[in-house]
Design goal:
globular, alpha/beta, 7-stranded mixed beta sheet
């Protein structure tokens, strides 16, 4: 299903590198705002940096796939040497596919993590990579995300008819 995540997890910071290796994951693509970094709090940048270091130590590449502009994304990520693709136009899958191909990876070797069904999960599913839905890091959103959150309530309602979406602490099928 287009909006159904393959996996759900409380937060991207609970990704386990041993489990990722077991799954054959070589790159974690992540949304930025409210997934990797609280959109309105810079203090979460240190946790983001620790995750990047942990993944790098395990030979897993972290790449941010964001709909934000390069200036905004670069300002946050460049000090931590985290690669990114800006203006990705999610839910279209092209940025995910192009970056995966640039890294020379197969679809099964890439995992896309995000906090929105309509953008992140749909883009991951259209690109054919593993999709992971996380809870937003903060409960507030920028004005342009509020529309998606409203629509997501209906999608969650319909998803619950076939299989309720629940968040786990570690990676398990959604």
């Amino acid at each position: 299903m287009l909006f159904r995540p393959k996996y759900t997890i409380d937060t991207i910071y609970h990704l386990n590198t041993d489990k990722l290796h077991e799954m054959g994951i070589k790159a974690v693509f992540s949304d930025l705002d409210n997934t990797l970094l609280a959109w309105n709090k810079v203090e979460t940048a240190e946790e983001m940096n620790k995750l990047n270091q942990r993944l790098a130590k395990a030979n897993i590449k972290l790449v941010v796939i964001s709909n934000n502009n390069a200036e905004r994304v670069g300002k946050v990520l460049n000090p931590y040497h985290i690669a990114f693709v800006a203006k990705s136009r999610k839910p279209l899958p092209f940025a995910i596919t192009k970056e995966r191909e640039r890294l020379g990876l197969k679809k099964a070797q890439v995992m896309m993590v995000g906090d929105q069904l309509i953008t992140d999960i749909q883009a991951a599913n259209l690109a054919g990579v593993e999709s992971v839905l996380v809870k937003p890091l903060v409960e507030t959103d920028k004005w342009n995300t509020r529309i998606n959150r409203f629509l997501e309530k209906f999608i969650f309602f319909f998803l619950s008819f076939s299989h309720r979406v629940t968040f786990k602490e570690t990676l398990k099928n959604g």
